Amino acid sequence: MTTEENLRVMLRGDCEIVHTRVFDAPRHLVFDALTKPDVLRSWYGPQGWTLVDCEIDLRAGGKWRFVTRQPSGREIVQFGVFIEIVAPVRFTRTERWLDWDCGEVVVTTELREHEGRTTLTSTTRYPSTQVRDELIAAGANRGTGEHYDKLAALLKAPHLSQ
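Above: the chain sequence. Below: its structure as tokens.
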């Protein structure tokens, strides 16, 4: 299936985007893939991007930092703080970028399991409609779809299906 068939994108209110994707894997594996640096390095980012640095202190108040490299070689630094962790059900974190000060973004990721499949719902609240719309125009939804496609492929790997 293509990204468009797998990812549901909804604008909510003036400042939010809600992404929903179903994975053929149990919730604990999806949670681990979203929160463990060694697993994140193998899938995170749109096609052609790589996660070259990943630090996660998975606790309320703990910091996280990702450095992704685009195919052009440009590196993007994202960072923030975890607000809430309810493993393997939900986590909320702040997000900022080193080279773009758009204000603080808050992302809540929820995982619901049913019959061995997990529905991921990620709600991103931007500081303004302008920031949200700039990211949409820059291809953020396409990039999100591509990196979730990479995650789906990883979750089908036999060594992770436990």
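The radius of gyration is 15 Å.
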